[in-house]
Amino acid sequence: MSNRLFNFCAGPAALPEAVLKQAQAELLDWQGKGLSVMEMSHRSEEFTQVAETAEQDLRDLLGVPDNYKVLFLQGGASQQFAQIPLNFMAEGGSADYIDTGIWSAKAIEEAQRFGHVNVAASAKGYDYFAIPGQNEWQLSDDAAYVHYTPNETIGGLEYGWIPEVGDKPLIADVSSTILSRPLEVSKFGMLYAGAQKNIGPSGLVVVIVREDLLGNARASCPTMLDYSVAAKNGSMYNTPPTFGWYLAGLIFKWVKEQGGLEAMERLNQTKQRTLYKAIDSSELYSNPINPVDRSWMNIPFRLADDRLDKPFLAGAEERGLLNLKGHRSVGGMRASIYNAVGQDAVDALVAYMAEFERQRG
Ligand code: PMP
Fold it and tell me: Which residues are recorded as binding pyridoxal 5'-phosphate (predicted)?
């Protein structure tokens, strides 16, 4: 019997139990080699197999075209906020960014250290409750690229569409939405994702970048931050986060076993519908996001009276529903329902929400 509870954490987030069990079973002795993955040389035949299989499985899942490199890097998604301008924006250059909330704002703030950022559209005018349509975007001619955040993990906003930006490279922070459903990689110049939601443990960041964009980093770009160096060295210019890479590989296999991204999409579609329906049909709970811009992965909701937050959270914890407290910057509640959080978890949450409302009603 497992005593694992339902974990709605935004990240590091729940991982599939089957994957954790496999990692546990292999921890001391990986495939009869007499040592753990953590203890092997990253250049060994064994780890090379782990690394290559993980990359191939991710390529298969997303249908990554051959002219894209897949990199397994360090420093989380936040380091990408600097790495992107250092690699793609010339000294004195500029780039277009779309502001839809806290994560896109962090990307903007960091990019401003390296050049001019044109905020081509902002959700501020909608109190960050809706995504500005592309007809409102003011893209600039001299932008080196266009950056946006397809899913705002804190605000709970998600694009149901991919922007059209002509021949400008489109760069997307898919940290909290990657692998939740199929994605047309060829529409992007680059995608990046911190691992600790749908991919694996924190610290690792996966970058998928079109090859023709590589090789233009600024002269001042640190070697470790130059994508072309990482690409040339198979993400092993230095010692990569081997255990995280291995765990990501186990997750990719697990997603394949679930039926791939089409199957994940069906499961996630039902999960989010269940939860939004519970919120929308209640008198006590509310979610302010424009319905077509609602996130599938991160669902913030408020109780009609803030004073109920504490008892709600205490009752949730008693029932084994963990980490429902909203981000400190917005308050309220947030349920993150990534791939490893099943329909059973969502059903348990919805049942508790109804019970709590009845008791207060
Ligand atoms: N972007 C998004 C959309 C995120 O959700 C997060 C983490 N929650 C980050 C960036 C930052 O990731 P990291 O902590 O790995 O740097």
Answer: 77-78, 103, 153, 173, 196, 238-239
- 265, 345, 354 from 278: Cα distances, Å: 20, 14, 8
Final residue of a structural domain among 230, 257, 284: 257
Which of 103, 323, 329 should be mutated for ligand 1, with most atoms under 8 A from CB? 103
Residue 84: inside a domain = yes
pTM, rounded to two decimals? 0.98
**Domain identity same for 251 and 269:** no
Structural domain boundaries, residue 289: 259-360
Q: Mean pLDDT for each 10-residue chunk of the chain (361 residues)?
A: 90 97 97 96 97 98 98 98 98 97 98 98 98 97 98 98 97 98 98 98 97 97 98 98 98 98 98 98 97 98 96 97 94 97 98 96 67
Q: Which residues are annotated binding-site positions for L-glutamate?
A: 43
Question: Which DSSP category does 165 fall into?
Answer: -
Distance 143 CA to ligand 1 centre (A): 24
The H or E element containing residue 349 is helix 343-360
Active site residues: 103, 173, 197
Euclidean distance between CA atoms 56 and 34, whole angstroms:
25
Q: Identify the residues whose C-beta falls under 6 Å from ligand 1.
A: 11, 76-78, 103, 149, 153, 173, 175-176, 194, 202
If asked whether residues 246 and 349 sit together in one domain, one would say no
Per-residue confidence (pLDDT) for residue 330, from 0 to 100: 86
Question: How close is the Cα of 45 to the center of ligand 1, in Å?
Answer: 32
Residues 6+ apart with CB under 8 A from 142: 93, 94
Binding-site annotation: residue ranges for pyridoxal 5'-phosphate: 77-78, 103, 153, 173, 196, 238-239
Report how far residue 239's alpha carbon sits from residue 74's, in angstroms, rounded to the nearest whole number.
Answer: 10
At residue 329, the pLDDT reads: 87
| Residue 54 exposed, middle or buried by CB count within 10 Å (0-12, 13-18, 19+) | buried
Q: Which ligand 1 atom minimizes the distance to the CA of 81? A: 10
CA of 106 to the centre of ligand 1 (A): 10
Look at residue 1 in the predicted model and tell me its pLDDT.
53
Half-sphere exposure of 253 (CA within 13 A, CB side): 16
